[in-house]
Specification:
globular, alpha+beta, 8-stranded antiparallel β-sheet, 31% strand, 29% helix
């Protein structure tokens, strides 16, 4: 009788472990981050958009090559009239794309990971819902907008003459130094790549959380999608 009970306990334990493993695999992970740091506190950026993803391509690619590539991406609505955004002095062209159907955070996380395997894509990022669809001087730019972030972020060091901590963090996170602000010498522009320990928002937060820097800010942008 005791051996029979022991056998049942072992079977139940194995089933429980198996179910837990399967659930973890099926659920996947959600890598969405909804905050940045401002004045030492977490500043909420908004809810995830389940309908759009931002992709970025190096500006060396002409628009027709980018469009040809996008036409091969099955998860996206091929009838959607997207815009290719290019800002002066920024290395990448950015394109918010509309998904064929709304996706969960876990599904978008997986899709972003898959997109980043493509050599033409420099980065793919989550987008965020917003009720504000105006530019910096309050002019309407569309009927519906999403927010997102680039690969570059901005770090304010404690002493511009001692960059030991900055250089060590760059090496630790596999990020890149873009340059020093010529007017505000304690501010440095950095870049996250696909080889970095996280995207531009994750790295901006990580640098601040290290306690080695006075400020660390991601580059947040707004994109009209309708």
């Amino acid at each position: 009788m005791r051996n029979y009970i022991l056998f049942l306990l072992v079977v139940i334990s194995l089933i429980s472990c198996s179910n837990g493993y399967d659930t973890e695999i099926n659920q996947g992970s959600c890598d969405f981050i909804n905050f940045k740091y401002y004045n030492g506190s977490q500043d909420l950026l908004g809810e995830i958009s389940n309908d759009y993803i931002l992709i970025a391509v190096n500006s060396i690619y002409p628009d027709h090559e980018i469009k040809n590539f996008i036409s091969t991406l099955n998860p996206f609505n091929q009838n959607y009239d997207y815009q290719i955004h290019k800002v002066a002095h920024y290395k990448f062209k950015e394109i918010p794309l509309k998904l064929n159907a709304p996706k969960s955070c876990e599904e978008i996380t997986k899709l972003i990971s898959d997109l980043n395997q493509n050599p033409i894509i420099s980065y793919a990022h989550f987008t965020l819902k917003t009720n504000n669809c105006t530019n910096l001087i309050w002019e309407p730019i569309g009927n519906l907008c999403v927010d997102s972030y680039g690969s570059n972020f901005y770090v304010k060091v404690l002493d511009e003459n001692d960059l030991t901590d900055l250089n060590q963090m760059i090496a630790q996170t596999n990020t890149e130094l873009v340059g020093q602000n010529q007017f505000m010498e304690r501010w440095f522009e950095l870049r996250a790549t696909k080889e970095s320990n996280g995207d531009g928002l994750a790295m901006a937060n990580f640098f601040y959380e290290s306690g080695l820097f006075e400020h660390s800010e991601p580059g947040i942008s707004k994109y009209p999608v309708e």
